[in-house]
Amino acid sequence: MKIEAFIIHLKRAEARRPQVDELIRQLAPLPAHILDAVDGKAMSPQALNASYRPNLLQPTYPFELRPTEVACFLSHRKAWAEIVDRKLDAGLVIEDDVSLVPEVFEEALKLAKTLCDGSPQYIQFGLREPQGRMTGVAADGNVRILRPEIVMLGAQAQLISYEAAKRLLAHSEMFDRPIDVLVQMFWLTGVDPCGVAPVSIVARHNQLGGTTIHARKSLSEKIWREWSRFRHRSIMKKLSRQHRGEASTSR
User: Cα dist. 71→1, 40, 51, 200 in Å?
Assistant: First the structure.
Protein backbone atom coordinates (compact mmCIF):
# COMPACT_ATOMS: atom_id res chain seq x y z
CA MET A 1 0.00 0.00 0.00
CA LYS A 2 1.41 3.38 -1.04
CA ILE A 3 0.93 5.96 1.72
CA GLU A 4 2.87 9.17 2.31
CA ALA A 5 2.57 12.05 4.79
CA PHE A 6 2.26 15.75 4.04
CA ILE A 7 3.04 18.25 6.79
CA ILE A 8 1.45 21.64 6.08
CA HIS A 9 3.95 24.29 7.14
CA LEU A 10 3.96 28.05 6.59
CA LYS A 11 7.52 28.88 5.60
CA ARG A 12 7.67 32.19 7.50
CA ALA A 13 6.53 30.47 10.73
CA GLU A 14 10.16 29.67 11.54
CA ALA A 15 9.45 28.88 15.20
CA ARG A 16 7.52 25.82 14.05
CA ARG A 17 10.28 24.28 11.96
CA PRO A 18 11.75 22.23 14.85
CA GLN A 19 8.27 20.79 15.43
CA VAL A 20 8.06 19.89 11.73
CA ASP A 21 11.38 18.08 11.98
CA GLU A 22 10.12 16.24 15.06
CA LEU A 23 6.99 15.15 13.20
CA ILE A 24 9.10 13.80 10.35
CA ARG A 25 11.11 11.82 12.90
CA GLN A 26 7.98 10.51 14.62
CA LEU A 27 6.36 9.47 11.34
CA ALA A 28 9.32 7.41 10.13
CA PRO A 29 9.46 5.07 8.27
CA LEU A 30 6.41 6.64 6.57
CA PRO A 31 7.72 9.01 3.85
CA ALA A 32 6.96 12.57 4.99
CA HIS A 33 7.03 15.73 2.89
CA ILE A 34 6.92 19.36 3.98
CA LEU A 35 4.10 21.03 2.07
CA ASP A 36 4.50 24.80 1.78
CA ALA A 37 1.32 26.35 3.14
CA VAL A 38 -0.42 29.12 1.21
CA ASP A 39 0.32 32.43 2.94
CA GLY A 40 -2.90 34.37 3.50
CA LYS A 41 -1.02 37.59 4.24
CA ALA A 42 0.63 37.42 0.82
CA MET A 43 -2.55 36.71 -1.17
CA SER A 44 -3.91 39.40 -3.47
CA PRO A 45 -7.68 40.14 -3.61
CA GLN A 46 -7.68 38.52 -7.05
CA ALA A 47 -6.14 35.33 -5.68
CA LEU A 48 -8.66 35.24 -2.83
CA ASN A 49 -11.62 35.72 -5.16
CA ALA A 50 -10.39 32.98 -7.47
CA SER A 51 -11.37 30.36 -4.89
CA TYR A 52 -13.57 32.02 -2.27
CA ARG A 53 -17.19 32.93 -2.98
CA PRO A 54 -19.47 33.75 -0.01
CA ASN A 55 -22.98 32.26 0.18
CA LEU A 56 -22.18 29.51 -2.29
CA LEU A 57 -23.84 26.60 -0.45
CA GLN A 58 -26.79 25.94 1.81
CA PRO A 59 -27.01 26.26 4.74
CA THR A 60 -25.34 29.66 4.44
CA TYR A 61 -22.13 29.97 6.39
CA PRO A 62 -22.61 33.00 8.68
CA PHE A 63 -19.08 34.45 8.64
CA GLU A 64 -16.86 35.96 6.00
CA LEU A 65 -13.63 34.02 5.75
CA ARG A 66 -10.43 35.82 6.65
CA PRO A 67 -7.54 35.53 4.17
CA THR A 68 -5.78 33.16 6.57
CA GLU A 69 -8.81 30.83 6.55
CA VAL A 70 -8.92 30.87 2.75
CA ALA A 71 -5.19 30.11 2.70
CA CYS A 72 -5.67 27.25 5.16
CA PHE A 73 -8.28 25.68 2.89
CA LEU A 74 -6.05 26.12 -0.17
CA SER A 75 -3.16 24.53 1.70
CA HIS A 76 -5.24 21.43 2.39
CA ARG A 77 -6.33 21.37 -1.25
CA LYS A 78 -2.64 21.28 -2.19
CA ALA A 79 -2.28 18.19 -0.01
CA TRP A 80 -5.34 16.54 -1.61
CA ALA A 81 -3.88 17.28 -5.04
CA GLU A 82 -0.60 15.64 -4.03
CA ILE A 83 -2.47 12.47 -3.05
CA VAL A 84 -4.19 12.36 -6.43
CA ASP A 85 -1.18 13.42 -8.53
CA ARG A 86 1.08 10.85 -6.85
CA LYS A 87 -1.65 8.19 -7.20
CA LEU A 88 -1.30 7.25 -3.54
CA ASP A 89 -3.61 4.78 -1.85
CA ALA A 90 -3.87 7.41 0.89
CA GLY A 91 -2.10 10.42 2.31
CA LEU A 92 -1.68 11.50 5.91
CA VAL A 93 -2.28 15.25 5.98
CA ILE A 94 -1.07 16.85 9.19
CA GLU A 95 -0.70 20.46 10.34
CA ASP A 96 2.57 21.62 11.85
CA ASP A 97 1.25 22.60 15.29
CA VAL A 98 0.47 19.15 16.66
CA SER A 99 2.50 16.41 18.29
CA LEU A 100 1.81 12.70 18.07
CA VAL A 101 1.11 10.41 21.00
CA PRO A 102 3.41 7.73 19.51
CA GLU A 103 2.15 4.61 21.27
CA VAL A 104 -1.47 5.41 20.29
CA PHE A 105 -0.92 7.04 16.90
CA GLU A 106 1.10 4.13 15.53
CA GLU A 107 -1.67 1.64 16.29
CA ALA A 108 -4.41 4.01 15.11
CA LEU A 109 -2.67 4.65 11.78
CA LYS A 110 -2.10 0.92 11.30
CA LEU A 111 -5.83 0.29 11.77
CA ALA A 112 -6.84 3.25 9.60
CA LYS A 113 -4.72 1.95 6.72
CA THR A 114 -6.83 -1.22 6.57
CA LEU A 115 -9.84 0.86 5.54
CA CYS A 116 -8.11 2.45 2.53
CA ASP A 117 -9.27 -0.18 0.08
CA GLY A 118 -10.29 2.07 -2.82
CA SER A 119 -13.30 3.57 -1.05
CA PRO A 120 -13.56 7.28 -0.11
CA GLN A 121 -12.05 7.23 3.39
CA TYR A 122 -11.34 10.31 5.53
CA ILE A 123 -10.18 9.30 9.00
CA GLN A 124 -9.70 12.08 11.54
CA PHE A 125 -7.07 11.94 14.25
CA GLY A 126 -8.70 14.61 16.38
CA LEU A 127 -7.76 16.55 19.48
CA ARG A 128 -10.65 14.79 21.18
CA GLU A 129 -12.51 11.55 20.70
CA PRO A 130 -15.68 11.44 18.58
CA GLN A 131 -18.68 12.65 20.57
CA GLY A 132 -22.41 11.83 20.63
CA ARG A 133 -24.07 9.04 18.71
CA MET A 134 -21.77 6.95 16.54
CA THR A 135 -21.30 3.60 14.90
CA GLY A 136 -18.24 1.38 15.10
CA VAL A 137 -16.25 0.92 11.89
CA ALA A 138 -13.13 -0.97 13.01
CA ALA A 139 -11.31 -1.91 16.19
CA ASP A 140 -8.03 -3.47 17.24
CA GLY A 141 -7.19 -3.75 20.92
CA ASN A 142 -7.78 -0.39 22.56
CA VAL A 143 -7.98 1.53 19.27
CA ARG A 144 -11.34 2.16 17.62
CA ILE A 145 -12.43 3.90 14.44
CA LEU A 146 -15.90 5.36 14.79
CA ARG A 147 -18.33 7.17 12.51
CA PRO A 148 -20.01 9.95 14.53
CA GLU A 149 -23.48 11.12 13.64
CA ILE A 150 -22.11 14.68 13.50
CA VAL A 151 -18.70 14.89 11.82
CA MET A 152 -16.04 16.38 14.09
CA LEU A 153 -14.65 19.83 13.43
CA GLY A 154 -10.92 20.33 13.07
CA ALA A 155 -8.39 19.37 10.41
CA GLN A 156 -5.21 18.85 12.41
CA ALA A 157 -4.47 15.34 11.13
CA GLN A 158 -6.32 12.96 8.84
CA LEU A 159 -5.69 9.95 6.64
CA ILE A 160 -7.33 10.57 3.27
CA SER A 161 -7.73 7.93 0.60
CA TYR A 162 -7.19 8.60 -3.10
CA GLU A 163 -10.91 8.47 -3.85
CA ALA A 164 -11.76 10.81 -0.95
CA ALA A 165 -9.11 13.31 -2.06
CA LYS A 166 -10.47 13.25 -5.59
CA ARG A 167 -14.03 13.89 -4.42
CA LEU A 168 -13.02 16.67 -2.04
CA LEU A 169 -11.08 18.42 -4.79
CA ALA A 170 -14.08 18.23 -7.10
CA HIS A 171 -16.36 19.82 -4.50
CA SER A 172 -14.03 22.62 -3.46
CA GLU A 173 -12.86 24.37 -6.61
CA MET A 174 -14.87 27.26 -5.15
CA PHE A 175 -15.72 27.34 -1.45
CA ASP A 176 -17.51 29.57 1.05
CA ARG A 177 -16.62 28.09 4.44
CA PRO A 178 -13.64 26.68 6.37
CA ILE A 179 -12.28 23.32 5.36
CA ASP A 180 -13.61 21.42 8.39
CA VAL A 181 -17.13 22.80 7.94
CA LEU A 182 -17.21 21.66 4.30
CA VAL A 183 -15.91 18.23 5.35
CA GLN A 184 -18.90 17.95 7.71
CA MET A 185 -21.20 18.01 4.65
CA PHE A 186 -20.85 14.33 3.75
CA TRP A 187 -24.15 14.42 1.86
CA LEU A 188 -22.56 16.90 -0.56
CA THR A 189 -19.02 15.53 -0.93
CA GLY A 190 -19.72 11.81 -0.85
CA VAL A 191 -17.00 11.47 1.80
CA ASP A 192 -18.23 10.43 5.26
CA PRO A 193 -15.43 10.98 7.81
CA CYS A 194 -14.61 8.71 10.73
CA GLY A 195 -12.80 9.55 13.95
CA VAL A 196 -10.21 7.74 16.05
CA ALA A 197 -10.33 6.85 19.74
CA PRO A 198 -8.42 7.22 21.95
CA VAL A 199 -6.86 10.61 21.19
CA SER A 200 -3.53 10.22 19.40
CA ILE A 201 -2.43 13.84 18.78
CA VAL A 202 -1.85 16.85 21.03
CA ALA A 203 -2.16 20.57 20.18
CA ARG A 204 1.10 22.50 20.33
CA HIS A 205 0.16 25.94 18.96
CA ASN A 206 0.37 27.66 22.36
CA GLN A 207 3.96 26.52 22.75
CA LEU A 208 4.74 27.50 19.15
CA GLY A 209 3.64 31.13 19.29
CA GLY A 210 -0.13 30.74 18.91
CA THR A 211 -2.38 30.07 15.94
CA THR A 212 -1.64 31.58 12.54
CA ILE A 213 -5.35 31.78 11.63
CA HIS A 214 -7.48 33.42 14.32
CA ALA A 215 -7.56 37.16 15.02
CA ARG A 216 -8.58 39.13 18.11
CA LYS A 217 -12.21 40.30 18.33
CA SER A 218 -14.20 42.83 20.33
CA LEU A 219 -16.61 41.65 23.03
CA SER A 220 -19.69 42.51 20.94
CA GLU A 221 -18.27 40.64 17.97
CA LYS A 222 -17.50 37.64 20.15
CA ILE A 223 -21.10 37.53 21.40
CA TRP A 224 -22.52 37.85 17.87
CA ARG A 225 -20.19 35.19 16.54
CA GLU A 226 -21.04 32.77 19.35
CA TRP A 227 -24.77 33.12 18.64
CA SER A 228 -24.27 32.77 14.88
CA ARG A 229 -21.99 29.77 15.39
CA PHE A 230 -24.53 28.07 17.68
CA ARG A 231 -27.32 28.62 15.17
CA HIS A 232 -25.27 27.30 12.24
CA ARG A 233 -24.12 24.23 14.15
CA SER A 234 -27.70 23.47 15.16
CA ILE A 235 -28.72 23.52 11.50
CA MET A 236 -25.78 21.29 10.56
CA LYS A 237 -26.71 18.77 13.25
CA LYS A 238 -30.27 18.66 11.96
CA LEU A 239 -29.09 18.13 8.38
CA SER A 240 -26.60 15.43 9.41
CA ARG A 241 -29.29 13.49 11.25
CA GLN A 242 -31.71 13.94 8.37
CA HIS A 243 -29.27 12.63 5.77
CA ARG A 244 -28.19 9.71 7.95
CA GLY A 245 -31.83 8.81 8.37
CA GLU A 246 -32.36 8.91 4.61
CA ALA A 247 -29.30 6.68 4.05
CA SER A 248 -30.58 4.17 6.61
CA THR A 249 -34.01 4.09 4.98
CA SER A 250 -32.56 3.51 1.52
CA ARG A 251 -30.55 0.43 2.57
Answer: 31, 5, 10, 26
